[in-house]
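Predict the 3D structure for this chain.
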Amino acid sequence: MEKIPMTAAGYTRLQEELKHLKVVERPAVIKAIAEAREHGDLSENAEYHAARERQSFIEGRVMELEDKISRAEVIDVSKLTGNAVKFGATIRLADEDTDEESTYQIVGADESDIKNGFLSITSPLARALIGKHVGDNVEVTTPGGSKSYEIVEIAFR
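Done. Predicted structure below.
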């Protein structure tokens, strides 16, 4: 069984989503199905079919979250140190073409949110950065073409 690396914050978010689905969403959809059944003929009851579809989505997501939580390898970023890029590191990069700087934290795939600076460990950029040091240049092939970055800072927060 393959472990899924994630930060403590990412693990907490998954647990909260699972709890919300079980405590709020699941009972609400069961109630909606019961109400739709009271309307009679189920074969032409759009409300019933919509509620059943929603129930199917919820149950699938619950199973997915339970699996991810059971395989989670929670990494406490605050206890990490070093001068090389690894999971949990916050990296400040300078685009070599524009000198524009950007900052990313390397996190688990389920936590990624590039607009908020969370870069998935499975992304091409993160894979290129792993093991590199401050001052190293990294070239990454993206869908938009090849980009070069210089690592300006590595921190663990």
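The mean pLDDT is 92.
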